[in-house]
Specification:
Layout (H helix, E strand, L loop, with lengths): L1 H24 L2 H30 L1
Helix pairs in contact: 1-2
């Protein structure tokens, strides 16, 4: 469980860093990477919560 939590935190920091870099440089490619990483982060978060729910049911 700690691994999922760590991955979500690192991914969220990555998204925040890419958005900040986009704000500073204006390069659209960085914003595209941020959206891609955000999708992966949300998928990971949903997986984390699904595992929590399954653990409570068992």
């Amino acid at each position: 469980m700690a691994v999922f939590r760590l991955l979500v935190i690192l991914a969220a920091l990555g998204v925040a860093g890419l958005v900040l870099a986009w704000l500073l440089t204006g390069r659209r490619r960085l914003l595209d990477w941020a959206f891609t990483l955000l999708k992966i982060t949300l998928g990971t978060a949903l997986l984390f919560f699904a595992v929590l729910i399954v653990e409570r049911l068992i």
